[in-house]
Structures are given as structure tokens and as C-alpha cells.
Specification:
The protein is mainly α. Helix content is 75%, strand content 0%. It contains 22 helices and no strands.
């Protein structure tokens, strides 16, 4: 939620910073070029963060790196509060991206390692759901609070996270991997709500604890340690997992939904809406949140494969409708009676994409990647995600000017349709499967 609020902050801040009368900066208002850099530099910070956090994944566990994310997020809000020039905001946005990279590397790993197999999907999809809650909070604050008050309110989120998360133990899988068997057992008891005596143990708990111990023994027999070799990355299971992960993060960005968020006001205005851009952003935030909630509700019922297929296919249909409307408008057709199509198509795209394409890649990547290279594999996929996001944010206006908005919609629809085919024919189903079963499935 703390990171999501940072992602949503520019929505309302954009117009204030671009205004000569309202800007709080001593250097005056920011031009479009400066504002585009302010937004896109978050992706640069995310890429740098991937390199940093990817290098420490197996050194310091999951809890300590997650706790450390509170500091740069708090500093980011502090820079916004005391900003007197664009440089402060550039640094703040890079720190926000830096936090995002750590969150999307360590949170899926942590949740996957503490969750029971039967609810791992629901808990994993909460990552994007909570991020969308943070975005919506920022949209609401942007509409109802003054520019200078927003960061003062939102800085409380990383502080609350640090205080509350301090009481949670490290993941049992990591503790067992580093040889802390007693701590691993206590951690597993905590996350399974099992008492500290043998009489409190249930059969599922005993079975899971034995699996953890056996996994640790296998690691010792194979003389595996935290160092990763080239053969670890080129094994059949690793290659398949990383390839699937790359395709999923590519689809996450090139389905166009993230890009369309930058055109929210344009689309609502084109439909003849009298809503202000900030109110439009709140509506979009609610739609995204509801779609992400549906993903949380359905992921352990319908499965990952089905949700990805429906989500990418539905997004392609919605984008096709939106692109067709825009194209007919450029040809001079009278579209007054159909002004509801942009809002309906736009809302449908965001809603259906939030079922899978926007929410589940991080969960599936953490489930598919073999344990030893899980941190490195996740960081590789996330680094590519930040690169794709930067290209979309920074250069989409150029693409739109070259081939028109309808051309962009056609491109996004084609990518979404390709993602639908990938989901049907390539993506494996991981619902309810243990990590050992998933590994055997990839090696088969």
C-alpha cells in the first residue's frame, strides 16, 4: 500500500506542478519534458533496485530486506514535502521505484514461502490488490487534500508497515535453508497457528515440517549453498520458468493498460464526461481495485491458467473496441450516439486485465522458479519489467503521434491476443501444487 500510494501520487500532482500559480517549487512550474522525466525516473530507480536487491536475495533472508524498504519510502516522501526544485522530485521518484523493485522481489517470495498450498494463490494476489488500494488512497488524497498535505498523510504508510511487520518471523523455508532448524519450526508453527507443544500438532503440520527437513537434507547432500552457478540458471526447469516469467512481465506492460492510465482524462473527455481528471482517476482506481479483488477471489478456484487466458483475451477484445471507436472518429464518422463506448471499453479493459494480466505474473513467477534461483530469477524478470515500463511511459507519446491512438490500441490488442494464446498452449497450471510438484512438471 505504501508503494502504491507513491505510484498514484503524480496523478493529482501533475497539474499542480505544471501550473505557474499553484506550483510549490521555487524554480517555477515544470514543463511537460520535466514532468515526463519525473514520472519515468521511477522505472530507472526500479531497475537499479533490482540489481541491488537481486544481489542480496539469498544473503539476508526475506524479513530484513522488506523492513529496510520503509526507509527509502519515508525519505522519498520527505523529499516531496521539502522539494524546492525538480531535482528533489526526481530523487523522490527514483527512491519510490527502488522501493517498488524490492517489494515486488521479496513480497512474492515471502508470501509463497509462508503460505499453505491451498491459499497460496489468494495470498499472493493480495500483493497487487494492496498496491491498488495504495493507488486509490493517493487518488482520493489528491482530490480532497492540498498538494502540501498529501505527502504528510501518505508518509505514515511506510512507518506503519515497519512497526507492524517487525513482529513477524522470517519465512520457515529460508530459515531451514540456512540451517536454523529450530527457528524454522517456530516460524512454521506461527504461520500455521500451531502451538509449541507436540500435542498441538496436526497431521498436515507434521507432514509440512517433515518436508521442510527433508528438503534441507537434500540441499546438504547436494552440497548446495547460496552461490549460484551457470548450470543452475541453464537447467531445464530454470530455463522454462524464466522464459515464462519474461513473457508474463512483457504481457503485463504491453497489454497497454498501464499506458492507458496516462490517457485517463483524455478518454473520459472524449466520451463527453464532465468529470474532472482527479475524479476520473478515482473511478479508474476503484475499477482496478475491484478487478484485483476478483483475482484474489478466483485465483485458487479457477486457477492461474484460466484467469490469464480470460484476462488477456478479454483485454484484447476491450482494446479492439476502443481502437475501432477511435479510428472511426479519425475518419470523420459521427460518433455522438456512441460516446459511452470509450468509458465502457476502458473500464472493461482495466477490470478484466486486473483478473490476471496485471495481478498474477508476480505470483506465478515466484511459484515456478526453482528455490535456489528464485531470487535471481525473480529479479531478472522484474528488471525487464522496469525496462518495459520505462519504454512505455517515456516513448508512448511518440508512438501515438506516429501511428495514432487507434494504432496503439491495435498494437496492444495484438500483444494481448498473443498472450492469450501463450496462456492456452504454454503456461502451466500451478493451482494447489506444492513446489516439488511444480518442479517435476517443469522438468517433464
Amino acid at each position: 500500500m505504501a508503494y502504491g500510494s507513491g505510484c498514484g501520487w503524480p496523478s493529482a500532482a501533475y497539474s499542480v506542478l505544471n501550473s505557474n500559480d499553484e506550483t510549490p517549487l521555487h524554480t517555477g512550474s515544470m514543463n511537460v519534458e520535466e514532468l515526463s522525466w519525473m514520472v519515468s525516473l521511477m522505472c530507472v530507480g526500479g531497475f537499479v533496485g533490482n540489481i541491488f536487491y537481486g544481489s542480496i536475495t539469498n544473503r539476508y533472508g526475506r524479513k530484513l530486506p522488506l523492513l529496510s524498504l520503509a526507509l527509502p519510502m519515508t525519505i522519498s516522501w520527505g523529499l516531496i514535502i521539502y522539494a524546492t526544485s525538480p531535482v528533489y522530485l526526481y530523487a523522490a521518484r527514483m527512491l519510490c521505484g527502488f522501493v517498488g523493485s524490492g517489494a515486488f522481489i521479496f513480497l512474492p517470495l515471502f508470501v509463497a514461502e509462508i503460505a499453505d498450498d491451498s491459499i497460496r494463490g489468494s495470498l499472493g494476489s493480495l500483493l497487487v490488490l494492496s498496491c491498488n488500494i495504495g493507488i486509490l488512497i493517493a487518488f482520493i488524497c489528491g482530490n480532497y487534500l492540498h498538494y502540501t498535505v498529501q505527502p504528510v498523510v501518505l508518509v505514515s504508510l511506510p512507518i506503519i508497515f515497519f512497526v507492524t511487520f517487525s513482529f513477524f518471523p522470517e519465512s520457515p523455508q529460508y530459515l531451514m535453508k540456512v540451517g536454523k532448524e529450530e527457528e524454522a519450526e517456530r516460524s512454521l508453527r506461527f504461520y500455521r497457528n500451531v502451538g509449541q507443544t507436540t500435542s498441538d500438532e496436526t497431521e498436515p503440520f507434521k507432514t509440512e515440517l517433515e518436508k521442510l527437513r527433508m528438503s534441507n537434507q537434500v540441499l546438504k547432500k547436494d552440497n548446495e549453498n547460496t552461490s549460484i552457478t551457470w548450470s543452475d540458471l541453464t537447467s531445464v526447469s530454470a530455463r522454462k520458468a524464466i522464459t515464462i516469467g519474461v513473457v508474463l512481465v512483457w504481457l503485463n506492460q504491453f497489454c497497454g493498460c498501464f499506458a492507458m492510465l496516462n490517457y485517463t482524462a483524455n478518454i473520459f473527455a472524449e466520451a463527453g464526461s464532465n468529470l474532472t481528471p482527479n475524479v476520473s482517476a478515482i473511478i479508474v482506481g476503484v475499477i482496478q481495485l475491484f478487478g484485483a479483488y476478483m483475482s484474489t477471489f478466483l485465483v485458487d478456484r479457477a486457477g492461474r491458467k484460466m484467469l490469464f487466458t480470460i484476462s488477456s483475451g478479454g483485454t484484447a477484445i476491450g482494446l479492439t473496441c476502443l481502437g475501432t471507436y477511435t479510428y472511426l472518429g479519425t475518419l470523420g464518422f459521427e460518433m455522438d450516439g456512441w460516446s459511452w463506448i470509450p468509458i465502457a471499453s476502458f473500464s472493461f479493459c482495466l477490470f478484466i486485465a486486473s483478473w490476471g494480466v496485471l495481478t498474477l505474473p508476480f505470483l506465478v513467477i515466484s511459484e515456478l522458479t526453482p528455490e535456489k534461483i528464485r531470487g535471481v530469477g525473480t529479479s531478472i524478470c522484474m528488471a525487464l519489467l522496469w525496462i518495459f515500463a520505462f519504454l512505455m511511459i517515456k516513448y508512448l507519446p511518440i508512438l501515438s503521434g506516429a501511428i495514432g491512438m487507434h494504432g496503439c490500441m491495435a498494437f496492444f490488442a495484438g500483444c494481448s491476443f498473443a498472450g492469450c494464446l501463450f496462456s492456452i498452449f504454454v503456461l502451466p497450471e500451478t493451482k494447489g501444487k506444492s513446489f516439488e510438484e511444480i518442479l517435476r512438471m517443469l522438468e517433464g
